[in-house]
Write a structure and sequence with these properties.
One of its GO terms (cellular component) is Cul4A-RING E3 ubiquitin ligase complex. Keywords: DNA damage, DNA repair, Repeat, WD repeat. InterPro entries: Rad28/ERCC8/Ckn1/ATCSA-1, WD40/YVTN_repeat-like_dom_sf, WD40_PAC1, WD40_repeat_CS, WD40_repeat_dom_sf, WD40_rpt. It comes from Aegilops tauschii subsp. strangulata (Goatgrass). The protein has 259 residues and is an alpha+beta fold. It has a domain of 158 residues: YVTN repeat-like/Quinoprotein amine dehydrogenase (Methylamine Dehydrogenase, Chain H), CATH 2.130.10. Helices cover 24% and strands 32% of the residues. It contains five helices and 17 strands. It has a four-stranded antiparallel β-sheet with strand order 1-2-3-4, with no helix packed on it. A hairpin with a 2-residue loop joins strand 12 and strand 13. The longest helix has 24 residues. The chain is elongated and about 65 Å long.
């Protein structure tokens, strides 16, 4: 239902499907290399220190101590057994049928989900460090691309469309994320999940939004066949509006005096 190119690598493509999974693809190779799991989480913007580095260090020490015996086993033709084991790992036997596992993915990883429903929207930040995803479960999630973890940002309640893909928008900071919520658009703080502002002006469901960083304008498209342009209020415009109000007030005073 949704596709998004990585902003940090020209070869990485991210996809969100009706199975609730977000998959990472390297277009130079066959098969996806990563599936995001909503149960794998972390707190904060950047990934914590992982203990796997110490485990890998211990494994490397064990490998170095037994390197001689391993090299002898390789010479005796043990690589044939390894090739057979790899072939077995790429297939699952269920009864009399034999099914191939998704390339590069085990059966346990293939069942991971990012949303309890279809993934309706994907949007990466301009720095390529985070990914925002929306789902038919009316949830918005922030992912750390480097670690593949859910950052557990609790975005406030929203109501999203379930039958159509949605186009999200993010500021360059990225401090704000814009998401279509039925006939309105909500702007959320990316790091806290609180609602910054709600934009209302469409008469039907909003499907897409795009943020123009140069002019700081937001463009939204809806089923009412209208494209609205949202721009922040500038001091010059506010002064003109204040002057108009003052002139209207003076005119009303003159009318009152004339009466």
């Amino acid at each position: 239902m949704s596709l998004e190119w990585s902003t940090s690598s020209e070869w990485i493509l991210m996809s969100g499907g009706c199975d609730g999974a977000i998959r990472f693809w390297d277009i130079r190779r066959a098969g996806c290399f990563l599936i995001l799991d909503q149960l794998r989480s972390q707190l904060g913007r950047r990934p914590p220190i992982i203990d796997s580095t110490t485990d890998n260090h211990q494994k490397n020490l064990g490998r170095s101590s037994s390197s001689k015996s391993y090299s002898v086993q390789q010479r005796t033709g043990n690589h044939k057994k390894q090739s057979k084991g790899l072939r077995k790992s790429l297939t699952m036997v269920r009864g009399h049928t034999q099914q191939k596992v998704h390339p590069g993915m085990s059966s346990s990883q293939n069942r991971k989900t990012a949303h309890y429903g279809a993934v309706t929207g994907l949007r990466t930040t301009t720095d390529g460090m985070h990914l925002l995803s929306s789902g038919s479960d009316s949830r918005l999630r922030l992912w750390d691309i480097d670690s593949g973890c859910n950052t557990l940002v609790n975005f406030e309640a929203m109501r999203l469309q379930t039958s159509k893909p949605l186009q999200l928008a993010v500021t360059d900071d990225p401090s704000l994320v814009f998401i279509p919520c039925m006939s309105s658009i909500k702007a959320y703080n990316t790091w806290s999940g609180t609602t910054f502002q709600t934009f209302r002006g469409h008469y039907d469901h909003v499907n897409c939004c795009y943020y123009n960083s140069q002019d700081q304008e937001l463009y939204t498209g809806s089923n009412d066949r209208q494209i609205l342009v949202w721009s922040p209020s500038t001091p010059a415009l506010t002064e003109m509006e204040d002057d108009d109000k003052r002139q209207e007030g003076f005119a009303a005073d003159e009318d009152n005096w004339s009466d």
